[in-house]
Amino acid sequence: MSTSTETETEPAKPRTARAGSHGAGPLPTAPCSVVWSKGHAYVLEGFRARWVGVDDRGRPQALSGDELQRRGWSRTRHH
Length: 79
Known about the structure:
Low-confidence stretches: 4-23
Largest sheet: 4 strands, antiparallel
Structural class: alpha+beta
Number of domains: 1
Number of helices: 2
Helix content: 25-40%
C-alpha cells in the first residue's frame, strides 16, 4: 500500500510545475510580447525568436520558447 501512495504523489509534482504554463495557453508570437517567469519579465525578440530578460542577478538571459514552457510562465506577474 505504501508503494501506491508514493506513486500517486510523484505524478502530482510535474502537474504542479506545469500548471503555470498550461493555464496561460500557448506562448505569444507577436514581437515585443511580454511574459513573466519566476518573477522576471521576458520580451520576445521577433527577429531571433527568443525570449530575453534577466536572471536573479540582473544578468541578461535569453531563452527559447521550449525553455520558457519548461520553466513555467504567465501573462501577469505573480510570485
